[in-house]
TrEMBL record:
Assigned protein family: Belongs to the aldehyde dehydrogenase family.
Name of the protein in question: Aminomuconate-semialdehyde/2-hydroxymuconate-6-semialdehyde dehydrogenase
GO molecular function: oxidoreductase activity, acting on the aldehyde or oxo group of donors, NAD or NADP as acceptor
Organism: Paranoxybacillus vitaminiphilus
Highest taxon listed in the record's lineage: Bacteria
PANTHER family, per database record: 2-AMINOMUCONIC SEMIALDEHYDE DEHYDROGENASE (PTHR43720)
Length: 491
């Protein structure tokens, strides 16, 4: 699947076939769908649409592979394969970054700085981590000794989102393989390219046939539903929208699959008057608009303590107006194109609803002048809304934030927690005790203080309430991707 680098560093997309049992192959049905470049609205290739037949083939291959050479590999051999995958991702970093930008509309400056390096690091991190994974033992006086042994869960279904395609696929696949499982991957239908290259990289790195499988397609009545319903899939790990998470859970219930979920968020960004304002604004530009705001961790609800509210708005709006929206391959671009026409319309509908609810648009809210092709939307700041407005309650997943003033710590904590989500939050203050006090009271899986999206992969990562089930990262990933047997020996 070598992507062909064409004029001015752009790459030409390729047609995507499934990867099953070590072979690239089309759907038996012959069904395909178009792959669209969101920055130009052009068709850049076709993708084979998999269904029950392809999922059955992939699951059978994965089941067989559990007891093949993969099982007999020593830990050191598995570590070497995982490290090699990370190395090969880095060797093809530029090609992968261009493909990711072509598929998603995100700036190449972002995919080359974040998405692809983190994809490689996900493999290097879990390869190294595997060396230190242990279990536990307990001595019952001189009566008995208990110790646990760890084994892979089995065949894992990985269902991945379109916002950080390779970063999030490798975030799941690396620990899945490190723990000795086999995988059936269903990439998001909107972003098939880098998952297809990853399959090729896994084969080249020495992953035995059948251990990693990729089946393209949609959710309902397609590869996605076939995977979540398949009785021989032991677990499902999913990152995506909460609504989709509920559908998957219902399908997985029939065979009681183990579930790991990282779902939506409506994350508060709380800025106290004693914060370093310039630093808070510089990071808030990222936590608001990075990746076109298409990040589950984006701080889309900004709460500013009243004494600095006007000053914050004046500076934040001015800086936001300086952001360059446009061609993902232009080095000057900060904000690229939204992922699809459907998503673009959805985000625009939230901006319309905010206006109907009395919101004022301080900047953005429309397609940039001169960009009539591509799903481009200006970074948007909305004020004059409150906790009862849809724009404040529902995940927009676009370059749209609301800014609201607050007076008391108790009040802003209550507002921050007034949501059925609970993924992440950001707190800006230089008051040490307040930082710890407020962070501990926010109902979220991750709280950043005076920073955002700073990631130590050993930490528990995931959401509470309707933002997820379970945690990923370090030992938390191994807990999901392995089963423990406690053995009690009478002395
Ligand atoms: O940083 C991570 O490990 C991660 O999972 C990021 C998720 C972003 C989702 O939109």
């Amino acid at each position: 699947m070598k992507a062909e680098v064409v004029a001015d560093g752009k790459v030409k997309a390729f047609d995507c076939r499934h990867f099953i049992n070590g072979q690239f192959l089309p759907s038996k049905s012959g069904k395909t769908f178009k792959n669209i470049n969101p920055a130009t609205e052009e068709v850049i290739g076709i993708v084979c649409e998999g269904g029950k037949e392809e999922i059955d083939l992939a699951v059978a291959a994965a089941r067989r592979a559990l007891n093949g050479p993969w099982k007999r590999m020593s830990t050191d051999q598995r570590i070497a394969v995982l490290r090699r995958i990370g190395d090969l991702i880095l060797e093809r970093k530029d090609e992968l970054a261009r493909l990711e930008s072509l598929d998603t509309g995100k700036p190449y400056s972002l995919s080359s700085a974040l998405d692809i390096p983190r994809a490689a690091y996900n493999f290097h991190f879990f390869a190294d981590y595997l060396r230190s994974v242990g279990t536990e033992a307990y001595q019952m006086d001189e009566v008995a000794i208990n110790y646990s042994v760890r084994r892979p869960v089995g065949v894992i279904g990985l269902i991945n989102p379109w916002n950080l395609p390779l970063l999030l696929l490798t975030w799941k696949l690396a620990p899945c393989l490190a723990a000795g499982n086999t995988a059936v991957i269903k990439p998001a239908e909107l972003t098939p390219l880098t998952a297809t290259v990853l399959a090729e990289i896994c084969k080249e790195a020495g992953v035995p046939d059948g251990v990693v499988n990729v089946v393209h397609g949609f959710g309902p009545d397609s590869a996605g539903s076939a995977l979540t319903e398949h009785p021989d899939v032991d677990a499902i790990t999913f990152t995506g929208e909460t609504t989709t998470g509920k559908v998957i859970m219902a399908a997985a219930a029939k065979s009681l699959k183990k579930l790991s979920y990282e779902l939506g968020g409506k994350n508060p960004n709380i800025i106290f008057a004693d914060a370093n304002l310039d630093e808070a604004i510089e990071t808030t530009l990222k936590s608001s608009f990075m990746n076109q705001g298409e990040v589950c961790l984006c701080g889309s609800r900004i709460y500013v303590e009243r004494p600095i509210y006007e000053q914050f708005l004046q500076k934040f709006v001015a800086k936001t107006k300086e952001l360059v929206v446009g061609d993902p391959f232009d080095p000057k671009t900060n904000v690229g194109a939204l992922i699809s026409e459907e998503h673009y319309e959805r985000v625009m509908s939230y901006i319309e609803s905010a206006k109907e609810e009395g919101g004022q648009i301080l900047t953005g809210g429309k397609r940039p002048d001169g960009l009539n092709q591509g799903y481009y939307l200006e970074p948007t700041i909305i004020v004059g809304v409150n906790r009862n407005c849809r724009i404040v309650r529902e995940e927009v997943f676009g370059p749209v934030v609301t800014v609201m003033p607050f007076d008391e710590e108790e009040e802003v904590i209550a507002q921050a927690n007034d949501t059925h989500y609970g993924l992440s939050a950001t707190v800006w203050t230089n008051d040490l005790r307040r930082a710890h006090r407020v962070a501990a009271r926010i109902e979220a899986g991750i709280v950043w203080v005076n920073t955002w999206f700073l990631r130590d992969l050993r930490t528990p990562f995931g959401g509470m309430k309707q933002s997820g089930i379970g945690r990923e990262g370090g030992m938390h990933s191994f807990e999901f991707y392995s089963e423990l047997t406690n053995i009690c020996i009478k002395l």
